[in-house]
Amino acid sequence: MKSVIEHIRSHLLNQFNDIIPIGKISLSEVEANRKKFDYFVELMNNRMCQGYFRYGRNEENEPAKIRYFEHILHCLDKYLQSGNQEFLVDAANSCRLEFMYPTAHKNPHFISGDDGEHAEEL
């Protein structure tokens, strides 16, 4: 008898005929990944709280205090140089702020779709 997860997985894979599963993922792997992501989000939120005291709040219809996109690139460069994952947390927060208070593009918008570009495997 199939487990609930196996049933859901089979159903989803049947909906997307062009997807070839790489392998089964166990519930313990899913839970471990969720815990890592929850920790990442906790770090992001802690640093956002710290930022409120350092930089103040962002307000709608007010100019941003930081050029978020430039800061994202700066943080990624610092991470590549040092390996310090703190810079990834800072980059993620800058992505969040750029999404909420766009500064880098004249016409920011969100349209969900498959543009054919995907992460490449190493």
Description:
With 122 residues, the protein is an all-alpha fold. The chain has a domain at 28-100. The protein has helices at residues 4-15, 27-55, 68-82, 86-100. α2 crosses α4 (86-100) and α3 (68-82) packs antiparallel against α4 (86-100). The mean pLDDT is 84.
Keywords for this entry:
0% strand; 122 residues; extended; mainly alpha
Please give the structural blueprint:
Elements: H1 4-15, H2 27-55, H3 68-82, H4 86-100
Total count of helical runs of at least 4 residues: 4
The counted number of beta strands is 0
**Proportion of beta-strand residues:** under 5%
Mean pLDDT: 84
Radius of gyration: 19 Å
The span between the termini is 36 Å
Summarize the biggest pleated sheet. Answer: none
Helical content band: 55-70%
Order of helices and strands: HHHH
Q: Structural class of the secondary structure composition?
A: mainly alpha
Q: What does the overall shape look like?
A: extended
Which regions are unreliable across 5 or more consecutive residues at pLDDT < 50?
A: none
